Amino acid sequence: MINYKTEEEIKIMFEGGKKLRRIIDQLKNEVKEGMTTMMIEERARELIKKEKAEISFNKVDGYDFATCLPINEQIVHTRPSKRVLKEGDLLTIDMGVYYEGFHTDCAETLVVGKEEEGEMKKFLDAGRTALNLAIKKAKNGSYLGAISAVIEETIKKNGYFVIKQLTGHGIGRKLHEDPFVLGFLNQPIEKTLKIRPGLVIAIEVIYSTGTEEMVYEPGDSWSIVTKDGSLSACFEKTIAILKDKTLVLT
User: Fold this and answer.
1) Is residue 53 part of a domain?
2) Structural domain count, the chain
3) Cα–Cα–Cα angle for 142, 145, 148, nearest 5°?
4) Which of 171, 180, 216, 230 is deepest in the core (most CB within 10 A)?
5) Which residues pair with 76 in a beta bridge?
């Protein structure tokens, strides 16, 4: 069942989303070669506290951290660790905050310690473009399938692969709510959910350079990696649908 949000609830989520956006921007500025992902986790916790918000991700059963920090072939749900970042690594910062009873969620992938260039820049630009186009499709009266279709089309035409088993999601009082927001189209657009005011979703573009197949990292019950070891990236924003406009919350 979809939990449509009131305008008052969306205002709260807007404030929480602004806090999360500031935290992620700060973390991106501080990431450098030689750091461990646990150092990023610790800094994220400090910033959440400074913003007078709460950690979101540790409210998921069995997950004890504020962030997920996949590197290179790791796709999602990778726990912070003593792993040291190297120049040129692809790092995804994925995190949420919980503010006044509501979650917001956001993710970005970046290159550690150097400018984006060449194939790496093309790869990351494809994800950013797909997310921006998906947000434009997310409006009152449109269909959820229009979001899925433009993600798939954009990623494919750039020569990359959508990780189909991982999706965006509704969000609110719980981190993961209905509906699923697929990164590919699996039925005619008109048969998918019609978007109406009060819908709040986290749109996720999750893709790789070499495969749509994923597996759990050996010996890890959380971290998911590409089956062929190819590079992966994730771009995610939480958005809210109002009658006459769409708000980007993160």
Assistant:
1) yes
2) 1
3) 120
4) 171
5) 224
